[in-house]
Amino acid sequence: MLKSVTITLTALFFLSLSYSQSNRIYGSFESNAVYYQENEEEDYENKLGSNNYLNIKYLFNSNWNVEIQVESYLPRRLQSYSDSFEDTHLSTLSINYSKKNFKLSVGSIYDQFGSGLVLRTWEDRQLGINNSIWGFRTSFDTDNVSLKLLGGWQKKGIGISSGKIAGFDSSITLINSDTKYQNLILGLSYVGRFEMPHYISYDFNDLTNLFSTRLDYFSDDFYFEYEQVIKSKDGITQFGSISNEFVKKGSAHSLNLGVTKPGFGLDMTFRRLENMPLFSDRFEQGEIYNESNVNYLPALTKQHDYQLANINVYESQPNVSFPDPELMKSGEIGYQFDLYYDLKEGSSLGGQYGSKLSLNISSWYNLKGQYTYYPSDYDTDFLGFGEKYFSEQSIEIRKKWSNKFDNIFLFINKYYNRRFVEEKSGEINSQILVIDNTLKLNNKKSIRLEIQHLSTKDDKKNWYGYGLEYNFNYNFSAYYNTIVNYENLEDNKPNYYSLGASYNKNASRFSVSYGKQRGGLLCYGGICRYIPEFKGLSFSINTSF
Question: If you count Cβ atoms within 10 Å of the first and of the last residue's Cβ in the chain, which end, N or C, has fewer?
Answer without folding.
Answer: N
